[in-house]
Structure formats: structure tokens, C-alpha cells
Amino acid sequence: MKRCVYINDDDLSHDIYCDNRISNRKYTVWNFLPKNLWEQFSRFMNQYFLLIACLQLWSLITPVNPASTWGPLILIFAVSATKEAWDDYNRYLSDKKANEKEVWAVRHGVKKHIQAQDIHVGNIVWLRENDEVPCDLVLIGTSDPQGLCYVETAALDGETDLKTRVIPSACMGIDFDLLHKVKGLIECPEPDKDIRRFDANLRLFPPFLDNDVCPITIKNTLLQSCYLRNTEWACGVAVYTGNETKLGMTRGVPEPKLTAVDAMIDKLTGAIFVFQLVVVMVLGVAGNIWKDTEARKLWYVEYPTKGPWYELLVIPLRFELLCSIMIPISIKVSLDLVKGLYAKFIDWDNKMVDQETSTPAHAANTAISEDLGQVEYILTDKTGTLTENQMIFKRCCISGTFYGNEIGDALKDEDLVNAVATRSPDVIHFLTVMAICNTVVPIQRQNGTILYKAQSQDEEALVHAAAGLHMVFVKKNGNVLDINFNASVIQYEVLDTLEFTSDRKRMSVVVKDCQSGKLFLLSKGADEAILPCASTGQQTRTFSEAVEQYSQLGLRTLCLAWRELEEDEYQEWSLMFKEANSALVDRDWRIAEVCQRLEHHLQILGVAAIEDRLQDGVPETIETLRKAGINFWMLTGDKQNTAIQIALSCNFVSPEPKGQLLLINGKTGDEVRQSLERVLLTMRITSSEPKDVAFVIDGWALEIALKHHHKAFMELALLSKTAICCRVTPSQKAQLVELLKSCEYRTLAIGDGGNDVRMIQQAHIGVGISGREGLQAARAADYSIGKFRFLKRLILVHGRYSYNRTAFLSQYSFYKSLLICFIQIFFSLISGVSGTSLFNSVSLMAYNVFYTSVPVLVNVLDKDLSERTVMQHPQILFYCQAGRLLNPSTFAGWFGRSLFHAIVVFVICIHSYAFEKSEMEELSMVVLSGCIWLQAFVVALETNSFTILQHLAIWGNLVAFYVINWIVSALPSSGMYTIMFRLCRQPSYWITMFLIVVAGMGPVLALKYFRYTYRPSKINILRQAERLGGPILSLGNIEPQSRAFEKEVSPLSISQPKSRSPVYEPLLSDSPNAIRRSFGPGAPFDFFQSQSRLSSSYARNCKDN
Amino acid sequence: MSSGEGSSQPSSKKSRQPKYSRFTQQELPACKPILTPGLVVTTFILVGVIFIPIGLLSLSASERVVEIVDRYDEDCIPSDQEKTAFIQSDKTNKTCVRSLTVPKKMQHPVYIYYQLDNFYQNHRRYVKSRSDKQLRNPENEDLTSPCEPEARVDNKPIVPCGLVAWSLFNDTYGFSVSGMNLSVNKKDIAWDSDKNYKFGSKVYPKNFQQGSLIGGGKLDEKIPLSEQEDLLVWMRTAALPSFRKLYGRIEQDLEANETITVVIQNNYNAYAFGGKKKLVLSTTTWIGGKNSFLGLGYITIGGLCLFIATTFIVMYLIKPRPYGDPSYLSWNRNPPGN
Hints:
heterodimer, A: alpha+beta, 10-stranded mixed beta sheet, 18% strand, B: 338 residues, alpha+beta, 5-stranded antiparallel beta sheet, 4-stranded antiparallel beta sheet
């Protein structure tokens, strides 16, 4: 499908495509109510409550006033509808602002001020510096003589650097005065959301130039919501407008994520629903039987001998309504409230503020905090996530000479400085490639310094380093680059740029030396992308050894190469390149193929090594989280050795005797299969030992494994706690997340760059690091944090507390509604199974919505263990991971407790309020106060830490209950006029209350104490230990350590065997950075592997059940 | 991908550092009680020690109550007659004389109750069949819709309408001791709130018991509802199928071994549904009427608490368990597979 845009044509374009009216609104004034209601009622819980509320309108069957259900229901709906409406209104306002913004556009051949919403496809739009781009434009002119302009795309992809955009070659040189008269045709694809691609063709109509088709790429476009910078003006043709722009297409609400806890609550709700149906059926049948056998004898009830046809249904339906409170209507509201608060706690947390950039943590998704406590797998990106993504050029190897090995910084290496001074040709070439072979934009600042704007941190590091070695990249003037070398200016003209793609893994430029007129191809890239292209005569062994050595140090390496080009060769190739560039189909592939034709017979100049420092606290964080039973997978685009080194230095895998790395590699299906099988075999054997086994796989093998050996790889994924996947593409990252999800693991993906977005969106929890690669990941993520080390706190503190609190809150919500429901059922047994409600409507409503909700909401402040203890004993997270605090068996405990308490309350009340005291209203209030007293003590017993707020809520609520009921009792019009005053004057009322409390809580307390003391969980022990004070255990306190690379000066032996045995045995046995354990040598510390194994085996068990 | 509106957020977020407060940092000072043996055992002992005396006190109060219960429904029917037919007939003589012996001295006031067993005043159809608005205000006479099937007769509203009023209990009792009539005080047997508010002083019975079916007692149409205290007492529906309602008070002491003669007008039909009718004379104490449940409950629960406390002490002595013992913290032992 293609879209044809006729430039500046006022007739044709109008009808076909939409105008530029942006609408992010979900609703209109008219469809708001029906649409919103429809959305809300698509949830099962809401359907259920609506059904109940409707049934209650039938006065024959309703036990209470329908208002008691309609009130809360309408309230809940109104609250969420208001929230939606408010959000939508704000969206409308911002849309309106954007739509009514004035822009310059050409109308009927005249430049006019029009509103942004009136732009149509094909219109020419003028922009001035710092204007926001109103729709997707194809550039046709700029103020820059070279046809360049700069845009900031932060709103689109989060990257804050400036990007250059250039006008298509066909539009080059059109006079400013003629621009608004340009006519032509742009063929472009239908709108899509890929902001990195735009493959189109432009053909201008005469009199503008010839009829040649001119290719247009993303480089020729200005996308909506970008800002024009450093350019006086620019103009372009609108190709996509309104909601059809690239940005508009990417909009849309991501699918809501459902936490494991939510899923469990849904399941339990389902179980309670079934239970409710059973109860209703049994009571309904019993009620009908009782009615026919007994009730007809009761003359005072006057049952008609023949009822209507639905007579048999009446009693079951009454019980359905009576039991409907079993599913608490308040649970959704309470959960939403507390989840909002969990998210706020994350936002507020001072300990998660990155002090360097003062970025606080942010929870974009407020609904999934509990899942943080249940994470089993963390998939992490390397660059920028584990490391700082602050690249510094450290060492290099130029034609066999190593620089920077002694002092760790090549820039300070005397030899190199001398070599530069003596103009050693290899070194000069090396520096030239460093300075030119890139897409960096130098910006002269007021004070004379030069600011480099680069898309890649590596390039920036290289250019900086070159500048440090007197090869200063001063100015970029269109295609002409000014290089200042030792005070003389050298000019190069960039003829073509062979861009970097993750598939090609290298980039090249073709430049012309403006003095000599010679053509050069300058290339840089990964070793395996460059070294094979070396000219046949050249020895590349030194370089691959250098690469090997550098990557063992955890440095990123880039190979630099060059070649002089013949004029003919270049001309011939240039044609092909142009053709490939204008291809509409498979353009990427064709360009890559054409590039391949030029990038051969390269003369390798050397290897540059760039350091990317580990972030603060990464090893400790990973160690702690691994102790907590969380498994780590590292997914990186980097090469294997670098990845392994980083993995070792940040405690990803243990060093030798305990750790073992298994390599999976191979280029063909068979090789991969064999290697996979060997690794699996080793895994199966070692899985019974307390060994730390990790597998390493690269992108190529992964591709094959995922495609052809999915099952084997799945088994491997199940067996292996740690994995290092190198050279993986963004989509493979997402695939791996999907794989782990399909094994029913809770996954957390953390990353910082655009290439992590898919993985972040795919995972149960996506965490973005608001880092140097822009905010793209942080925006797509559910949580954004400033530094990797905050992950520890996010999971262990916030995740764990959230899980614990929600577990209690949800089960308690069921407990209290079951309690009141059981009492209703018991009462119906002594009221002729006729479905009489013991409680009046007001009490029932207030019980659910008010009396029992407030104390438990304050539970969001509850902390079972102090943050310090949790950090010291991260293993405790296991209870959350395995779902030990909220599962069918704990729920059964709460169910039993509510049954027991219902019996206690009911039996005591009907016996102490028997005979002359058995008045309906009185008994109802006695029973209700009994429930309120009990629930206050239940909450108190289950609360681990009492802050002043909790005391206020629990005991204040009890007082509030009496105050409210006294007020209601003082109103003559209420049904319970004077009841509460009467009761409070009776000693027997208070005696009954105390009896209920002690009889109800005594056994619970005794049982709890028994469990606490004689069958303690680890949480209990730690609480006890915490109470005793002092150092809790001698087991490792993890102290922060200084970074690895700064301490190490001596290079490692490069004699790492290249044995491709499946078991990569001599892993770092002699590596100094291997000994990075923080515990003393004598500490018995093998528990975390076994623990994690236990936990996962437990998790398996749970899932099997 | 997030939408465009968020574009200005990152910059504003940076400037907005979270403010420090103990609440936002979740650092409010908290007390963390834990279940130490001392705490738990002390609690149980304390509860036991408090509960047993209260139980004894309540029990003795309940024991002090002198209560005479006399079931008369069976004895007041000639054994040769069909019970329901007898009670429904207008012509039969339903007077019945019973004599009760006072077991212990009963101090005034002696409360007279009638007790009905197996009478479901809490049946849904019954409970709902009343119109509180009509009872309160003469203008609401026509608000009889909840009262079905006793709402109207010949399309005129019944006041008071509904099954509850319609089934008004109508046995009467006359008391005498050795030939001397005991006066029964029937004033103030209903709740003040009912007399002053729930039942209007200007609402007079109308069309009551005029239908084809006659339920229970009739009402004097000249007396406003608020003064028909028997009705008020009856209309306070009982929550249990076995209940007592106040009939009146005897404002004089009854000596031990005195014989009270009760003349009962046995009008109320409890036979049709197998109900029992009892006459109860009872004194009262601070805890109310005779009800040993609370006393026994307190003693039992108190005893159990002491028992539990003892058990825990013994367990503690036999098998002391150090708290927070790191040796139990080994993550390897007791595999958490249970």
C-alpha cells in the first residue's frame, strides 16, 4: 500500500487523508457515559455487582434497602468515571492547544498563518528555530546552504542529542522565493509507527529540475513533536497528519499488566463465588422445603397456598442477595488506593534519588508493585544498565604496539604522545579514523570549547580522545569536516556514510581529502566485522590478540581500518549505493549488501579500547538479589568476552571452583544442537551440586536454538539460574523474556536504551534506567530509576512490603465480608430459612465501606521486618516469591478464622441476648459490635509494627463506630432510634463484648504464639532476632566495594585457552578480579545457590499443584 | 511507547526532589510488639484472672434471680378436644386457672412475661409486613404497601397494618394470692422511644381485625397507638424463634411458698404450628433476667485461658526455645516444600 502525496496541490489532497487535528481523547461528550460504563462493566467483578444491585430492586427478594449496594456501586463507578473524564478533559485541552497553534503554511500559493489543525497532507509548512513540528514533514528547504537542519527528538525517542536532517538531493538549490511554489509527488508507505524508517520517493514536477526519482529516508523528515534547533528556518511537505503521524501511530494505551497477586485474588474470588453459589443452592432448597413443610402451618405468616410461577426461585434469589456481600465490593477500591500509595512511596523515596542528576525513582505503573516482590528472573541489559555508559578511551593497539597498558590510560602514554609528535603515519591514520569516521556534530560554544553531539557514546569517546591527541575535529560544514591537527587545518569532504546497523556491526565513511583529492574509505566496527575484511596480506593475529586481551579487561573494543579508493571504483559503487538507497523494498538489506562491496581489503590500523565503568554498587546489588533467589540473565549486544568479564566483575557468576561457564556456540544448526545437548547434560549432572552454573550463548546460536531446538533450550532455561546472552538483538531480548514468561516465571526486565524497550514492555515488570542513552526505556517502563543499584531497594523494600501488605489486605477483606455473611447465614437458620437479614441496610453498608476498611488501609504502613534486616537477609524475599503469604492455604486459614469468629459471635450473642432481650434491632447491633470488636483485634494482632497512625485507625475506628451509632441512634427517624444508648447502658452488653473478644481471639493468639515459637518461619525468627538487637548474624554484611577496574593495573594473562570444550573449565582461576566475594574465607556460605534451587523447586511444586 | 504529552515530564521531574518526611519515607516511629512467651503467658493469665471473678459474679447474679416458668398451652385445652378447633372457636370457654408456687422470696417489681416458643417473629415475610410511617403519622394512613397481605380491608387501609400487628398476642392473665387480687401494672412496659416517637399519639386503630381472617388480639379504637403498650411490645419483633415479652409488673413482694392463682384467658392460637406458650414471673438483677450463659461462659473461657497459660509455661520449661536463634535461620534446613 502506498500513499501518494501531491505537494502543494489544493484540490486533490483534501478529501483523501485526514486533517491535522490531533485527538488523544478516548471519549466524546456524547459517548462518554455509555462507553465508560461499557468499559467498566467488561470486568467480571463489576458485572457481578451490577447483577446483585439489579436483583435488589426487586423488593420481594431484597433483604435490605437496595441503596446499600447501589450507593457504594455508584460511588465506585463515579470515582473511576470522574478520573477517566478528568484525564480525558486534560487530553482534550492539550490537544486543543496543539491543534490551535498557529503555523505558517502555504494556501493557494500564498504563505499564510493557519491553525495547526488545518494542515492537510501535501501542504507546505514553514518552521522557525525552536518551533515544534506540527506533523510529519518531508524537508524541502532550510536556511542552511547545505540543506541541513538540526532537530531535537526527545519527545519522540527520548534522546536528547541533536540529530541532523537534510533536504533531499532533488530539492537542493531551490530558491527560497520559489519554495512555496514547488509541486511534486511523494510516494510513501502507509502510516506506520516505526520512527526509524521512512522509505519514500520524491519526484518534483517541472519546472523544478528533472523528472528523476529521488529517494527519501528518515534523514529527510521532520517528525511531529520534534523541535527545530540551531536552524533559522526550515520548510517541508506534510506527509502524515493528525493521528496518522509516526508519533500518533505509536500512541495508544499499553495493555494493562496484571500482577500475580491480582491473578491470585481473582482466582480466590472465583472460588468464593462458587462457594457462594453452593451455599445459595443449599439454603435455597432448604428454604423451599421449610416453607412447604413448616411455614404453611404458621398462620401468622399467611403464605398463600398457590404462589406465582417464580415462587421456587424467590428464596434462592434472596439468599443470593444475602450472600452477595461474601465478595467484598470494597476490595477493588481498597486495592487501588493502597497500590497508588505504594507507587507514591516509590516516588517519594529519598534513598532512591540519584544524587548526581537528582532524578527520583518513578512508578509510572501504579498497579504492579506487588509483582516486584515476586520477581524470579531479572533480565538486564549491560551497557548503561550495569555500566555507567560513560565511555572513556583507555587503551589502543596501533600496528602491533600496545599503548596505555602500563598506566591504564593511552592518552597519558608517553610513547603514544611521542608517536603523534613524530607523525608516525600509522598513528596519524589511526587518529584520523577516530576523528572522522563518525556522525558526530561539533558545536562551537561561546567560550571556544567544542561540544560534541553524538548519537553513540563510543564515537564521542573516540573523538574526544583524538582531540586529546591533537587531532581536533573542529567544524562540520555540510559535508566538509575541518580537522585541526597541530595547528594546521585539514579538510575532508564526506562523500558517503555507510551507517552502523546492529547487523553490520560496523560503519564506514567515504571521504575525500580536499588537498590531495584522494578518496579514502574509513571503517570502524566490531572485530569480527572488521578483521575478516582485512586485506589478504595483512596479519591480523596481533589485533585479535589485542581484542582478546582488552575484552578480558572488560573493555569495549573497536577495530579501526582504512583503504584508499580508486576514483572509478568509487563512482561505480556510488551508483549502486544510490540505487539501493532509493529502494522501496528491503532497503536495509540492499544497502547492507552494497556496503559489503566496498568494505573489503581493508588495512587494519589498530584496536581502540574503551572503558565503560561499572555503576556504583552493581556487584553488591546483584549479589544481594541473587541471594534473594532471583536469577539473572544478562542480555547484551556486546561481545562475548566483554560480557563475561562484566558478568564476573559484577558477581553475575561466581569465579572458579564454584562457578562454571558453559558455552553454547556454533554457526550451523548441527553445531548448535550438539553444543546445546552437551551443555544440557552438564547442567543436569551439576544441578544436584551446589554449583553455580551459567551458560553463555551468542545471538547467532540463540537464533538457531530458539527456532529449531526450542524445547531443549527451554529445559536449559529452566535448569540454569544464570545466563549470558551476547550479541543479541532487541527482538531476541523480547523473545527471551517471552520464553521465561512461558515457563511461568515472573520476569523483570531492566534496561536503559531504545533497544531495551521491547524487552521492557514484554516483561511482567519493566524497569528503565533514566540514563545517558536517553529516556526512551524509562518512558516505556513501569518503573524508572536513576541507577541500577536502586533495583535492590525497589525489589527488597518496596516490592516485598507491597506484596506483604496486599496479601494481608486482600485476605482480610474477604475475612471480614465472610464473617458478616456467615452470621447472616446462621441467622437465617433460626429465622425459618426465609432470608431475613439480621442487619439493617445502613449497618451493612457502613460495615463494608467504612468500619472495616479504614483500619486495614493504614496497613500500608506496616513493616514486618526493618529495611535493614531485609537487606541483610535478602533470602527472606523467598516468602514473597513463592507466594507464601497469599495462596489457597493461607486463604483457607482466613476462611476458617472467619467461620470460627462467626460462630463465636453468633452463639454468644444469641445466648446472652435470649428470651426477653431478644429484640431484633438490639441483637443486630450486639452482633455487629461483636464483629467490629473482633476485627479491631484481628487487625491489631496481624499488625507487625504500630505507628501512631495505625493506633489511631484501629482504636479510633472502634471509637468511631460507637460515635457514629450514637449519632444514628439519636435520630428519631432512623430505625435504630435509641438502640445504641440502651445497649451501652446495659452491663451485659459490655460483658458480652469482652467474652466475644476473648473467646474469638484467645485461640487465634494461642495458635499464633505456638506457630511463632515452635514452628517459626524465617520471618518470625528474624523479627525475634531484630527485637534482641545487636548484630543479627555473622553472615555477610555486604560492604560497598570500590570499582574493579581502577584497582587493576596489571593485565591478565592473555593465555586464555581457546578450547571449545563444552565445559569452559579454567575460568578465571588466576584472575585478580575473581576474588570479589565479600565474606570471610571461613564463612559457611553456600546457601544461596541451594536456596535459590529450593525456592525454584518450591515454585515448581506450587505450579504443579 | 508513551504518548506525546509526557514530553515535558522529565525536566519537571528532575526539579521535583521528593520532600523528606517520616511518612513519605515510611520511617514513622513504630513499636513492634512480638509474641514473647512472657507477653503471651501474662496475657492469658491476666485474662483468666479477670474473667473468672466476673463469671462468678454474673453467675451469682443470675442465680439470685427468682423465676417461675409455667407452660400452660397444653393444660389449658380440654384433652378430649381438637386443639386448633377449640382455640379458633368463638364459643368455647377459654378461661383456664393455674396455680404457681413461689419458690423463694421475690422482691418487687416482679416482671410478668409471656413466652412463645417456635414462633418465628423473625420470618422474613412477617418482619417486613409493617409500615412504620403509618404508625407514626395519621397522614400516612394510606402507606400500607409493605403490609401485604394485611394491608387493606374492603380497600380501606388497616391501621396498624401488616402481619405483625395483625397477629397481636391476646392471652390475658389475672393474678391473685390467697384470694387477694394482685394488681398488674401494665404501664411503661413498652420502650419510651416507641411511645414517644415510633407510634404516634394521634394515630388511632382503624379497620383493625375486620377482615375475613382474624389474627390475634383486637385494639380499642379510642386509644391512640402510642398508648396501646401491648401492641408496642409485640411489635418489637423478636430475633429468636423463642422469646419472652413483657406483659406487666407486679409491684409487690411475693413471699416464698406463696401460691399464686393465675386466671388465663387462653385465646392465642399457638397450636396450629406446634408452638408453646409459657407464663413467666421473674425478678431481675443488674445482669437482667435469669441467664447463666454469660457467667458460665466467663468461667469456662477464663479457665481455658489459665489452662493455655499453664501449657505454654510447661512447654517453655520442657522445651525452651531461644528467640531469634540464628541456627534456625539456615536457609538449607527444613526445605520449604511443605
